[in-house]
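Quarterly update from the structural biology core.
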Amino acid sequence: MNINAVAKQIIDELDHFQKSFRVQGGGLTFDAQGSLREDPLIGYAVAAKSDGASVTILLCRHAIPMSHEPRTAGATYASYLSPLGKIITRTPGETHAFVVKHVRTGLVLEDHNYTLVEKDQFRSKRTAEGVFDAEDNRFSWVGGGALARSLRALLSGAVPAGPSARRHQIRVQLPDLAILDSAQDDLFRLPFNHRLRISGAPGTGKTTVLLKRLSQKTKYEFLTDAEQRIATPAEWQEGRSWILFTPSDLLKSYLKEALNKELLPADEEHVKVYSTFRNTLLREIRFQGGNNGYFRVAAREVNLLKRETGNEHILLTRAVGRHLEDRFLKMWRSAVQEFNNETRGPLGKLADANQAVLLKGAEILKEAGTDIIELRRAQERFTNFRNLNEKLNQIVQQIRRIGALQDADQAVSLPFLYGKYQDFLALHASLNIENVESALFPDIPGLIAGLQKEVRDLTDAIALRRLFESIPRAYQEFREDRSNRDRYFTEEATPLIREKQLSSLEQDTLLFHALEFVRALRREFGASFTGVPGSVQLLLDKMRLLIAVDEATDFSSVQIACMERFAPIQSGGVTICGDILQRVTRQGLKRWDEIDELSPGFTGVDLSVSYRQTARLFAIARDIFSHVTGETPNFRSAYEQSAADPDPLWFRPTKAASAGSWVAGRIIEICDLCEGHLPATAILVPTRKEVQPLCMELRGLLESHGVEVQASEDGQALGDGERVRIFPIEFIKGLEFEVAFYVGLDQMADVHDELVDRYFYVGLSRARSFLGVTCERSPKQLTKTLQLVHQHFSERVSFGEFEEPGANA
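Predicted structure, tokenized:
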């Protein structure tokens, strides 16, 4: 591979693009075309076709430019999201084959077979002079590879192509990866209706794959023919039919930039903090809150359940489901019994009146005589009486068939009840009679009207609205039952149950059964949802073809079941991602198989290569994993050990040197090492109460150096990129920073008891390059996990001098 020649070709293409490209397209394509103005190319590849001819492929992130040809003769543009775009993830010398089929017929239109010869992956970025450069280049060819920070610098002779240091991240955002590795690439291209569970160590790209999957699956032109048969463009809602759930506002804010890069709107319609979404939805369907809500929400710290963790939440939810089934059965039997009681007498009278109709008709026919006109009139009256008799016979039989249901041994499911509801609606509409001679049969109209009322009452008794509104009432009945209260609830919960207060986990159970109600009947409603009550319609309107859940291990299995139920069973797709060892909530998942009972069918895949930390820092995460699980880690760092990577530092505060003063000194030092820039920096503390005191101390030490410090006690905001931010450890799941300090590491064991190992694992894996901790106790006074962690740190004061890890441990 002639690197300089390839570099010149790429720069020439970028210059040609900047000079000649003009945004075109309508409403559906304008944004994608507009994104090319700032991000025209992300890769270059040369591939050999099966006939020996070669082709140059210029890779775009999303759409390819309309009405714009490459400068290189014979070159072609391709989107990375397209089947051809996958070639950039191949190793030179490997073959990439794919077919293009007709959407409706399935006939093969094109059969492609390429062998990758050479490639370069890079980022397009404007320079200070306003021209495009290709940065962070990764060249590959058969048997070799090289790196180059800048192609313009390479061509000017300023730097050679070769090993390159990792770039420091200044902004607090998910790393922008336009092209994924081969394993990640395979996952995001799986059919959209898969139920996919992605796990892996910190920095392995779980969230990146999830977002790239949303990115491709919301662009109809990049779906396979099989995927396009599952959902029509109308169902696709122009790529808007998706929801991404996160556990916190902070993580939602953190993902915003990455969503924008993938042309995904980071708005309230699509990105939801689950707890807020749940509370809002339960209020809107009148299960809680307001003047008309059935329940009131208990204070955040209140828990009514005996056990919040493990399988108990599932057992409670299942038990409520059985109680709800019993309630529906009782509602049905009670309604039919009431119907029988009220119709038995009128039905007997109607049968007697019907017999009189037939006898009267025979009598009139007998008395007609021989006059032709009189006989014809008598025959017409007889025919009317006979028709009335048949109609009344039909009504009597229909009513009796309903009555017979009382003793029938049958499963009373929601689809059964909805079917009967529809039958009774039709019966009510048909209960009308014509040509009744009121003078002869004065009782019949009243009897029919009475039966109509009873059918209407029966229909109302099992109406969707009534069944749906019985869910919160059934749950209150469940809680008031003495055996259930003793089994699932604390003694202190009794007065709160009486007051109809609802705790957080109970909200999940209630939402689960509301969604189960809708799921059970979804196919019965038809496409128009005609006659569906407003509360059920509201839930139906929230359904999306694509559901994604980030940091899934912080959710309970019931919460995950609620979220995934917003996708249709057959056509919807669900992708969840997380790391069991990073669980930092008591109700979160301890094992992936916990989701199987309520949400079966997920395919699990583990990612094994981490792109976040230096190899030196990543060794800490590996050792914590081994210590906690007793297993050898199956993950590794993508980076080789480098002498230029700074040691993690361990500082023990003294009266003369506080933790805050040491952290301030290291931040100033890092700014100097980074040529005056402040990389993305976070300070982590065990709880909210430590945030403000440390913030005040650091402001006094850093503001004279032009460094701002921001407190984020509740994890509501990331703040500006050029600020030092202080977070309680519980809020920084899923985030990463170039620099992380953990102040009071030893205090974590005193605060978070059984979650302590996971908090260590999460906190110490947030840093990409610089990691420092303060710890007041000596290593011998620490937990086994912290003693294990300590051996990786240097006790030097400064990052400025490099040495092997553990030298002073």
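DSSP finds 26 helices and 23 strands in the chain.
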